Amino acid sequence: MNSYAEELDFSWAETSLEAPEEVARSGGKNFGFDYYYPLVSRSPQIKDILKLIKKVAKSNATILIQGETGTGKELIASLIQFISLRASKSYVKVNCAALPENLLESELFGHEKGSFTGAYQTRIGKFEQADGGTLFLDEIGDMNLSTQAKILRVLQDQEFTRVGGNKTIQVDVRIITATNKELLQQIDVGNFRDDLYYRLNVVTINVPPLRDRKEDIPLIAEFFRRKFTSELRKHTRGFTEETIRLLRNHYWPGNIRELKNLVERAVLIVDEGEMINPDDLALTGKDYFAAGGRDRRKNLGENWGFNTLKLDELEREAILQALEISGWVQKEAAKLLGVSPRSLNYKVKYHSITHASWKKNI
């Protein structure tokens, strides 16, 4: 029996947060199934985030969302927009890391005809498109300094000029930003303006990585199982206990995005009417064993193994594999290896293992 599937009821999500009347009438159906994902949590950290969202969503305050890649920052931003007073207005998204400097400025502020080669007509930018609504700037930590200065002006004065233009355009836009970078560190190395940071940092939401909220892993996995079984019109019976255990113990370097992709693949692979078992997961051999799996040795192929029988070299290879799986966090690698952090630190020094992310090695 799949106790997780039986005990979950997501109908409460529709009334968990207050929404504008026209949004509430739709029951969220017009806003996508993934609207409910941020609400699926038993983590105290996420519950605190939801409480904060309820307090600030209906203001015009600028919000900065910080977290690792794949933690659901964009979904948090969408949830804020969903329950804001601007929910019925434009909601425009821009990925600042996806465009080169010259194109990003034009994308944000628009350009006048003839302002540069290829500008065959006047173009309205994202700020004008979002007038009266909300503009979400994703990966703002990747924005170049000159564009940052222009963003700062819009935040201060709610006005700007198009590229190649002289006319001042006024807008009423609420700004939500997100980044997977530590902006204070970016300020220290000269990659981010401190004055812009303090403008963005009116309200900060720090989204924890999935490995720090293990109690949510079965819930979110079940959420995505229901999503994909519904979309594919395929009957599945949930996850086996061993599958849940593996999901809980995996390190999740890709966070929610990785879990979503893993569950989608499992739903596609599992036989009709069956439960999802470890063989349906796309975990590599080393990830499978690191998460506690023990019965798939014959299917490992090239994903796991050692090239020597010399004990010192075997030990070094095992440590390197554990460090790679854990993102070079020694404390997490020690857990995977079943040793104390102090013992692992000794072995790391003994084998002369270094990594650029360790301060002592920089």
Structural class: alpha/beta
SSE succession: HHHEHEHHEHEEEHHEHHHHHHH
> Do you know the CATH architecture of the largest domain?
3-Layer(aba) Sandwich
CATH topology call of the largest domain? Rossmann fold
CATH class of the largest domain: Alpha Beta
- Report the principal-axis shape: globular
Structure description:
There is one protein chain. By secondary structure, the protein is α/β, with parallel strands linked by helices. The protein has three domains: 44-207, 3-Layer(aba) Sandwich (Rossmann fold); 211-299, Orthogonal Bundle (Helicase, Ruva Protein, domain 3), CATH 1.10.8.60; 311-361, Orthogonal Bundle (Arc Repressor Mutant, subunit A). Helices cover 42% and strands 8% of the residues. The chain has a five-stranded parallel beta sheet. A hairpin with a 6-residue loop joins strand 4 and strand 5 (168-170). The model is unreliable at 10-16, 18-31 and 296-306 (pLDDT under 50).
List the helices and strands and how they pair.
Elements lengths: L2 H5 L13 H5 L18 H13 L6 E4 L6 H10 L8 E5 L5 H9 L16 H4 L4 E5 L6 H13 L1 E3 L6 E3 L3 E6 L3 H6 L5 H7 L2 E4 L10 H16 L8 H9 L5 H15 L15 H6 L20 H15 L4 H8 L3 H10 L12
What brief labels describe this structure?
alpha/beta; Rossmann fold; Helicase, Ruva Protein, domain 3; Arc Repressor Mutant, subunit A; 3 domains; five-stranded parallel β-sheet; 7 strands
Describe the structure concisely.
With 362 residues, the chain is α/β, with parallel strands linked by helices. 42% of the residues lie in helices and 8% in strands. It has helices at residues 3-7, 21-25, 44-56, 73-82, 101-109, 126-129, 145-157, 183-188, 194-200, 217-232, 241-249, 255-269, 285-290, 311-325, 330-337, 341-350; strands at 63-66, 91-95, 134-138, 159-161, 168-170, 174-179, 203-206.
